[in-house]
Every structure is written in structure tokens, then in C-alpha cells.
Amino acid sequence: MIIPRTIRKMKERMDHKNGPYAHLFTPYEGDEVVSLDCETTSLNVKEGEILSIGAVKIKGRKVMTSERLDIKLRPPKSLTGDSIKIHKIRAADLVDGVYMDEALEQVLEFIGNRPILGYYVNYDVRMLEKYLRPRYGFGLPGKAIELSHVYHDIIKWRHVGGDVDLRFDTISKCLDIPMLERHTALGDAITVALMYVRLNYGEPPKAG
């Protein structure tokens, strides 16, 4: 039985309200958002394994690049030639990577109960929750913000009708945001953060 995410989060909040992670389930009242990205061996959540995790905080109009997370994991057995062609991460690049338990602790501490931003953010959240739930009994509690939905809503508001191109490269070009270290977790997280700030505080973009 598949439990709807909202119901599951309510249950997790009740289960952990008196535990060591209770602070993660309190309503967030600040003005920060965390842009998150994971590089993985596959786009299939069930089969994929996480290679690296990148995150950066956004506070109002500012992308806080000094407050960032750049984690490399130990190389998994599923790291193959096909996946290396996409993210350019080899096993040799991960020899100094951390184990998953340490990575998850860093992620929970960095994100806290802040909203989580990303491009296809649900995939990144689901990948992390695949490891979080067996270890902690809960997933990421923060609200998820999908960048492509923010972009889509603004474009549709200005240009009624027609399809909106939601490809990462198109959004970047339309917003005049350079793609930083494409297909690296931290690079994509920072690029998405810059796009989000541009959408919220810059001139409304033209349709791409």
C-alpha cells in the first residue's frame, strides 16, 4: 500500500515529536531555502545509488555560496561506464568519499526543516529518503519546491496558451543564468538557486 506523502509526513511528525529529531518537524518560520541536487548511478530510484550530494542555502535575494554542502560518497558497485558518461564521476574520484551514514547526518543538519528547492526535486528527495527511512524512520520533512513549476507558472501568466519548454538548459538560457559545472551536484544546486532568485526577484523572463 502506497501512503500519500502528506499523510506519511503527519505520521512521522507524531512519531518523532519527542525524539532527538523533533526540531526537524516544527513549522519553518525563517526566510531560507535549500537548493539540493544529487548525482546518481541511475534515474530509476529503486536501482540508483547516490554518488554525490550538493546543496546551498538561499536567503532572500542572496545565494549563500559560503553555506554549502558538497559531499562525495564511497563508490558503489553500480558505478558503470554508462553512468560515468553522464556525470563524469569515476570510482577514482570517490576514493575519499564518506559512508552513507555520515552523509545523511550532514544532510539533515544542513537542511533542517527548511524548504527544499530543486530541478525535478522529487527525484532527489526520493533518492535520499530511500536511505533515510530505513535508518531514521522518517524522510525529509521540509516542503519541496520544484523550480520548473515556478518557471512554468510565471511563463504561463505572461504568455497564455502553448507549451512551455521546461528543459534545464532552456530555463537557464531564458533566465540568462550560466550553468555552473553541469552534472555536478553542487554546480547544479547553485545554478538552480540562481534561477530561483532570478525568478522571484528579477525581471519576469520571456517565453523560451
TrEMBL record:
Keyword Hydrolase (UniProt): yes
Start and end residues of each Exonuclease domain: 32-205
Nuclease is among the record's keywords: yes
EC id: 2.7.7.7
Any Pfam family matching the protein: RNase_T
Keywords, alphabetical: Exonuclease, Hydrolase, Nuclease, Nucleotidyltransferase, Transferase
SUPFAM superfamilies from the UniProt entry: Ribonuclease H-like
Any single GO CC term annotated in Swiss-Prot or TrEMBL for this entry: cytosol
GO terms assigned for molecular function: 3'-5' exonuclease activity; DNA-directed DNA polymerase activity; nucleic acid binding
Protein name in the entry: DNA polymerase III subunit epsilon
Taxonomic source organism: Amphritea japonica ATCC BAA-1530
